[in-house]
Description:
The chain is mostly helical.
Amino acid sequence: MTKRKEAILQAATKLFAEKGYKDTSMSELAQLTGVATGTIFYHFNNKEELFLTILKDFKLIITQELERHISENSFENGLEMLASSLTFYLNMAGVMEEQFLILHRHDAYELARVNKACQEHLEAIYNGLVDIFEKSILLGQKDGSIRDIPAKKGALIMFSMVDGLARLNTYDLYDAGGLYDELLDACRRMLCKVNVIEEGIHAD
């Protein structure tokens, strides 16, 4: 990728995050990057293609980084692998604030209703994350750290919790770090076998 194309993508990510897809204009993007509008259209056919490229890149980065995190670390059991994945997700939400703001904006999903490629990118982002959580739950059920529940549904619930917390942080409604310990404790209590929970209570 050329430096100019990369600069256009970075500036577009900033504008889409701040103003949303609908209210971002190519002329404003050209002004921000210091290039002619025609230069932007040389690299991207239209605003829609530019937006989809950002989503595609985000999908690759976050899923690859999470998979790398899992492969490069060792975990005592599936439950700890899940807890680590939740932690990693929150960290990524802090590091990639602009991309997460785009992901959390409603207009991305409005575009997805009429654009199949956009829908596929969004689904791939969420499915990639949920799949990691599901693998953790299945591993935990195998090693005995997680009780017998539908793994897919459990993964969706875990994702909903951590993504909801990330959204609070994205919109500056609440410091996600302030609820981090409570999030992990709630997840463990939901997933642990009853006897494991009771042991923890007695230990306290």
